[in-house]
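Section 5: illustrative case.
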């Protein structure tokens, strides 16, 4: 291949990069709870808001579909995916492997825990405001920053997709405060152990934390299956655990 032929691919690279950036924006909005499960993503309004072409937006949708965040329905368009109990079980298995593995490897106080600590502070602020979506976002970001302590871009990228899927799972919880608040407190306890360099202790706490959250979510999905059709089992903005 000549350099002229390679240069001809420049436009393709630009489009791909833009689609990646658009996908990242939409993924972040899903993590933050702006697009609940079942939301139809209108191409015209989103494309206009972001100032991107329809082709670029469709490529971003395709990327997010591969991440199991979106689903295309024939003749209806693109929708935010609705999770299942199997998603819960698989996601929590992944979380225990990744999150607990990162935390367990900590044997001395990390040099900089400011970003982890900031998420705990953000959670306390959201609780005072009774802003459950913000509390859920702070909680998810706590786990994102825990994994970031590993210093691995690949692991960070993996967790970004996992956390977006988690936000969709958490919408099954009927009472956001009841679900969020205990985990906010446990975040602080895990942070305290990490500050002391007790990674194994923090990992043990985190293991129990994740199993407790998984059990609650599996039970919530079971209750949802038993609820009458149209009763509305989920509360928008949920996002802890």
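Designed sequence:
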């Amino acid at each position: 291949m000549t350099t002229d032929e390679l240069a001809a691919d420049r436009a393709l690279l630009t489009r791909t990069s833009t689609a990646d950036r658009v996908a990242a924006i939409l993924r972040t909005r899903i993590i933050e709870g702006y697009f609940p499960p079942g939301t139809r993503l209108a191409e015209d309004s989103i494309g206009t808001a972001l100032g991107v072409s329809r082709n670029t937006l469709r490529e971003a949708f395709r990327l997010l579909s591969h991440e199991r965040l979106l689903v295309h329905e024939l003749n209806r368009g693109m929708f935010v995916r609705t999770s299942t109990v199997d998603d819960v079980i698989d996601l929590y298995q992944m979380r225990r492997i990744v999150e607990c593995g990162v935390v367990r490897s900590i044997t001395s106080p990390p040099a900089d825990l400011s970003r982890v600590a900031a998420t705990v502070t953000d959670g306390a602020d959201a609780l005072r405001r009774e802003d459950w979506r913000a509390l859920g976002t702070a909680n998810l970001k706590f786990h994102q920053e825990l994994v970031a302590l590993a210093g691995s871009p690949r692991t960070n990228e993996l967790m970004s997709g996992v956390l977006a899927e988690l936000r969709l799972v958490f919408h099954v919880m009927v009472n956001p405060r009841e679900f969020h608040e205990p985990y906010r407190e446990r975040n602080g306890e895990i942070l305290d152990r990490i500050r002391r360099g007790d990674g194994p202790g923090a990992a043990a706490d985190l293991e129990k934390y994740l199993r407790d959250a998984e059990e609650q979510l599996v039970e919530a999905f079971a209750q949802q299956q038993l609820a009458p059709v149209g009763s509305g089992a989920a509360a928008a903005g949920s996002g802890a655990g």
